[in-house]
Amino acid sequence: MTLLSSLRRHFDAGSYERGERYQRQGRVSALQADRLPDGTMRLAATVQGSQWIPYVQSVLLRVNANAVTMLDGECDCPVGINCKHVAAVAIAWASRPAEAGTASPKPAPAAPALSAPISDLLERLGEAAARDGGDSYPDTVRKRLLYVLRMEEGPNGREAAVCPLSVSLRKDDRFGSDDKPYATGWNQGQIPAKFVTPSDRAILQFMAQQLSHPSHPEKGRALRGEWAAGLVERMLRTGRLYWEDFRANPPLRPGPDRAGTARWTGDDKGRQRFDVGLDTPSAVVLPTVPLLYVDVESWECGSLTTEVAPHLAAALLGAPPLPPAEVAAFRNAAAVRFGARLPVLPEPPARTEARRVRPRPVLRLRCGRTPYSPFGYGGSMMAVPIPVGVLEFDYAGTRLAGKTTAPLQWMEDGTLVTAERIPADETKAAARLNGTGLIRNETPLSVAGGPPVRRELFVVPGDAFEESAGWLTVCHSVLPALRGEGWIVEIDPDFPYQLAEAPGNWSFEIGDGSGIDWFGLSLGVDVGRERVDLLPVLRSVIAALDAIDADAVSPDDAFFDIHDDFRDGNGASEEPRGLDAALDALAPDGILFVPVAGNRFLPLEAERLRPLLGVLMELFGLQTGDGAVRIGRTHLGDLAALEEAAEAAGVPLLGADAVRRMARTLREAGGVPAVSPPAGLRATLRPYQQAGLDWLQFLGAHEFGGILADDMGLGKTVQALAHLLAEKEAGRLDRPCLLVAPTSVLGNWRMEAKRFAPELRTLVLHGPQRKAAQGTLGDHDLVVTSYALLPRDRAILAAQPWHLAIFDEAQYLKNPTSQATKATHGLDARQRLCLSGTPVENNLDELWSLFSVAVPSLFGDRTGFRRQFRTPIEKHGDAERQRILARRVRPFLLRRTKEEVAGELPPKTEIRESVEPQAAQRDLYETIRLAMDQRVREEIARKGMARSHITILDALLKLRQACCDPRLVRLESARKRVAKGAASAKLDRLLEMLPDLLADGRRILLFSQFTSMLDLIKPELETLGIPFVELTGETRDRETPVRRFQAREVPLFLISLKAGGTGLNLTAADTVIHYDPWWNPAVEDQATDRAHRIGQDKPVFVYKLVTAGTVEERMLELQERKRRLGEAVYDQAATEADLLTAADIDFLLAPIDG
Description:
Layout: H1 3-7, H2 13-24, E1 28-35, E2 41-47, E3 55-64, E4 67-75, H3 84-94, H4 97-100, H5 116-133, E5 143-153, E6 158-168, E7 180-181, H6 198-210, E8 221-222, H7 228-238, E9 241-243, E10 253-254, E11 258-259, E12 261-266, E13 272-277, E14 283-286, E15 291-295, E16 300-305, H8 310-317, H9 327-338, E17 351-355, E18 360-372, E19 382-395, E20 398-401, E21 408-412, E22 415-419, H10 423-434, E23 439-440, E24 446-447, E25 457-459, H11 464-484, E26 488-491, E27 498-499, E28 506-510, E29 518-527, E30 530-533, H12 534-548, H13 577-586, E31 591-597, E32 600-605, H14 606-609, H15 613-619, E33 629-632, H16 636-649, E34 653-654, H17 657-667, H18 687-701, E35 706-708, H19 716-729, E36 737-741, H20 746-756, E37 762-764, H21 770-773, E38 782-786, H22 794-799, E39 802-807, H23 819-824, E40 829-835, H24 844-854, H25 862-876, H26 879-889, E41 893-894, E42 908-915, H27 919-943, H28 949-964, H29 972-979, H30 985-999, E43 1004-1008, H31 1011-1024, E44 1029-1031, H32 1039-1046, E45 1052-1056, H33 1057-1060, E46 1071-1074, H34 1081-1088, ...
Parallel strand pairs: 5-9, 10-16, 11-16, 17-22, 18-26, 27-32, 28-34, 35-40, 35-41, 36-38, 36-39, 37-38, 39-40, 42-47, 43-45, 43-46, 44-45, 46-47
Antiparallel strand pairs: 1-2, 2-3, 3-4, 5-6, 6-7, 6-8, 12-13, 14-15, 15-16, 18-19, 18-24, 19-20, 19-25, 21-22, 23-25, 28-29, 29-30, 29-33, 31-32
Helix pairs in contact: 2-3, 6-7, 12-13, 15-16, 16-17, 18-19, 19-20, 24-25, 25-26, 27-28
Domain SWIM-type: 59-94
Keywords: ATP-binding, Helicase, Hydrolase, Metal-binding, Nucleotide-binding, Zinc, Zinc-finger
InterPro entries: Helicase_ATP-bd, Helicase_C-like, P-loop_NTPase, SNF2-like_sf, SNF2/RAD54-like_C, SNF2_N, Znf_SWIM
């Protein structure tokens, strides 16, 4: 690369080519080159352009490796920076032999040389063409820099201003909508945007140096001083100067010089302003030096001359008008001072007259603005609107501000009329405003863009709430009174508190909504000629009442209380005690102002609204996302309550007569009709269980869902199975039913279905055969799956229509954002039932989540539920909200505690909890089983059954340990499985049960044969924070743990079967859990009798945890056939007939799925 070739990148193509031509024509002279201390080269030269006087250049450049790496040149031509003249200087320097490093090459044959006059002519023609057509851009540059010229109000009068704008050029060559002010500051080291031409750079740099910086860039920079006209001329040359609107108007073009006539013009107030008249009325005069005009018809801009000296003419054009009283004095002083330079002077009025005019007070409600910086000193400024009342006075049609004292003057038929102010009347008007609660403003504010003022402005004192309430009261009560006293009252459109007329006709209207399930509700009022629905806007009122209502009760009170099967529906709510005080606080004058549209407010009579507040508060929990209120079939009780409240408020309830009759029928229902138990049910239902079946059948008949929330152990499973069987026997089970439960209880559901409802075709969708079974869902009555699999099989389960979906242990769905909960919403089921002994453990959000699954239409969205129920109840102890919530859920939530139904329970209830082993645990079990099976058979083959007793017992022991917890098995293979994540499904199930049982107030005895298993359980209890005592063979002080448990100091007693199976009296317990079944039922019974004995005054529940499909389950099944089996295994004196047979061994050691 040579010096010459490296110069091109520092210039645009046109400037470099013209500079090259200038250099060849010998136009560069007086070229000097100096090297500065830092190695930078400084060039100075002159270049002969198209004018008589040559242009002067100063260039700084840096050279590295025979290439110019930096070049910054200035010229006093109009372009100014890196122009063609600078290019000519740089090319001339680089062409010198000393700089190029070689002898100057011989010039190539050139075209015949042009004479200097012809060269100058061509140069002038080029510049003229540029002025006519503006700058040219490559096709790839789609942005433009425009200059917009307009007249603005300056501090002393009107002045011209220009605003540079950047804007995109669309494909159709029209301007885009992305225009924005372009910065006029310029850094010499800054790389310009591609759409900024050299001429633009010169203009922007000049504006930054000569014109003041604007406070509002969108208004542009004021064109003042002797430079203004020249700057406008430069902008004209670009072809991108516009008058006011660059989209509507064409660009301005240079126009001819014109002559104007100086004159003074007057207005109806006698004020006179200097003006210049032109023959063309469409011309606007710019106060520059010299004067310029803009013709808005021909879109020309040019110079304007007049008989007044140009500087005087520009100053007078930008000056404010002369008041009539000052005209004569100005005329005399100007004639003496300026003489012939100002030959045209204003004429004073020919006649004067004094009059007495009484002022009429004017109150204008407007918005004042004060500059406020959120970022402190030097931060960006924004105007904060403040509602104000502006006090003015109308003197014969002329408005005067309160602070001015000058007399009023106006012209009338050539006569200057003067009226003196009447301060006493004005003072009286200000005092009248002070008496309304308004006070004088002490902060300077700008109104309508004017200068800051203070004393003539009135404001409402207080915080934002008090300000809003105060202004609305002023508009409602004060303004009508002032109008009656003769005041002029005006309200600007942007004033934030516009009052609509009080509505006349109110009515609740029930629409069809979306069919038979949902019905729209509105509270219509007439506002002028418009019908407005008040329910969406009353939402903010209800929210304000919530904030004010401090009526509270203890949050420990129960939020639901179900004792009857189905009470009198959802009756009308009693008036909330705290709402009266809250309403009085919001409407102390008996008028409540609600926003209806924009800044309009509607005054409502508080007494008419009062009876509706309770039921409206409840209904706002049913809002949709767009703020509309709707009532579903599940809210018919709310509709009945609304009808009563509307009647009390004198507001008619219109529409949907059939729906309203249904609501009254539901409210007046006598209870759930009884049904017969299904014939195929292999169980006798207790009375409370029969009531539960009646309730489930009633909900199903109306396709309602619900939550069965009975205490643990009261038979939720058998009630659900009875409901399923009743549906099948009635012929309604034309679709399968889905049951979702924790993985640990899938086996229990399989066993209970087989036990109580064997006619149900049951499929457990779990394990290795799950994928293959997915295609047979429709062939079964009951499909059982787990919460873990529900999200994975979401698509398959959602595609299958279900008659009924049951969610056991529904506390798994208490997190509404969990994948399992989300998957339930996609299921197509006629009825949805949740089974949970603890529907609320931590907060009411859990109840909302369960009902979003079981009865999705019962509540609104989660945010509305929190506002309506959770926050008032949990944080404020709101008893009224508790009552409303209980009434809302009562038809769909059935809960019986063991205390309520104690009279129906037997002294002892045994419950088998079948637990499905996890995959890793299942694999470990099978590994041990295969090894033990081979070992036992080899031992029996060698010694016979009678002498293989120890080997058989050891095999069964290891299998039982694998069922309890893989960590109990003392085998290397077991340790490896544990290291890889093999865990105990039975332990997981125990840890699920204990918190629920303890939450119900149960006192529990937990038995295990293995003290090592108790050692594994203890740290888990400590993690859960469950206190316990322990009794094993190593316990020396047996009295203390027994005393503490009996004294109810701890709720859980861990006992090894051998240490505590006999000799203890633990009647404080009402629940017994056998973690691992004992082979001898009598031993288990003895342990159970520690609680179930004389002195026990409560029913006892006995839970037996059994690992499904394993030796535990097979042994219990075998016990039913051979009652003495357990004794035979452990009794050394048993006869040969009591011992296990070969068939028994095959049965006990069969594969887990065998």
